[in-house]
Amino acid sequence: xxxxxxxxxxxxLGDRPHLxxxxxxxxxxxxxxxxAAAVGELPGVAAGASRTFQPGDALKVAQRExxxxxxxxxxxxxxxxxxxxxxxxxxxxxxxxxxxxLVDHVLGDVLRYDExxxxxxxxxxxxxxxxxxxxxxxxxxxxxxxxTLAYRxxxxxxxxxxxLTSTGALAEVWLAIQAAGALGLTD
Length: 187
Known about the structure:
By secondary structure, the chain is mainly alpha-helical. The chain has eight helices and four strands. The protein has a two-stranded antiparallel sheet with strand order 1-2. The chain has a two-stranded parallel sheet with strand order 3-4. The two termini are 16 Å apart.
């Protein structure tokens, strides 16, 4: 959960059964699933809800799902997003090792290039795909010229060895980008 004051959150939670964890500026509220909708009513909140998990389940998976969901909430302007609300999330496996393997296989060279060259190829491709492959709209969102975006997309295709005009390659890249987001590898 982000963008709300601790006072407002604590006042809201009041006598509702919950566990509140703090990590840096993030707040994790563990409670019944219905609590997520109620938290979404707080002013200025951006919250993400993981899938329900059982005692003994790994908290790390729920944390990763909640972080993915809160990033989607912040991007979309919605108060609360539940993990798996999008169509692509349902097709991703839960196993972090499998997700990592997918990301490395499809996006590994792009991620390494972005890191070593301080470039934004992955962000550019993701933004372009999120805007239904509309170059003008994506370039405006990125605050770059459409020709710059076209160059970045070509470079992304070269590094990933994926032709973004191919439906199969596009689907594979999109799922890998979603997996990278679920792992917290994208900004």
